[in-house]
Amino acid sequence: MYKAVVLPTLLYANETWTVYEPHAKKLNRFHMNCLRRLLKITWQDKVPITDVLSQSGLPSIYTLLRTAQVRRADHLVRMPDIHLPKRLFYGELAEGKCTQGGQKKCFKDTLKVSLKSFGIDPDSWEILAQDLPAWQSCISKDATSYEQRRTAEAQKKHELRKSIANSLPTNSADHLCPTYERAFRAHNGLIRHSQTYRTQLTSSM
Q1: What are the residues facing 28 on neighbouring strands?
Q2: Which of 76, 98, 108, 109 qualifies as a FRET site for 126, CA 20 to 30 Å off?
Q3: What is residue 176's DSSP assignment?
């Protein structure tokens, strides 16, 4: 149901989007929250994102967005020159000037980033896109490789954060629960534990 209804609604017409990094992060956060709810994984379980994606069998939003953009681009290449989408894609402004503070991204910019992420040469991708079976096979392989690289990088970051956290000295006497005699590394952990304890005590009464 999630793959058939929620994802198509969330990413409707995403092949034409000009995606910024903050937008992709918000979409991926929603994607991960939905998967955690479907798999009944809570934050107390401390399951990393890579394991959630592995259990669900779905890629990240980043991979879905880039795959849709690259697949849309090959339609533009094979489209007749008189069609408006192709004219807009290859067209350039005859006059105008750059604004101060950087320019807004366009579809070409995000497409170039997607092609580089998939290991496709941005200067010669149009020739490869003329052969539809070869292009589709290339996209499938490159999307899988891209997702694997993202997973490997995320796992490295997770292990690094875990090793840093384990190497930090702990002062358990400062954050000790008097009821359960449980020690916490941070004051916030003790506060959350106390709130959970009060909630359980109230519900039991």
Answers
A1: none
A2: 98
A3: B
DSSP bridge pairs for 183: 176
Length reported for the chain:
205
Q: Cβ of 28: how many Cβ atoms within 10 Å?
A: 17
Which residue type does 132 have? L
Distance CA 180, CA 183 (A): 9
Over residues 125-142, the pLDDT tens digits come to 888 888 888 888 889 999
pTM: 0.73
SS (H, E, C) 41-77: CCHHHCCCHHHHHHHHCCCCHHHHHHHHHHHHHHHHH
CB-based burial, 44-80: b 16+ in 10 Å, e otherwise? eeeebbbbbbeebebbbbbbbbbbbbbebbbebbeee
Any residues with CB less than 8 A from the CB of 20 and at least 6 apart, and which?
105
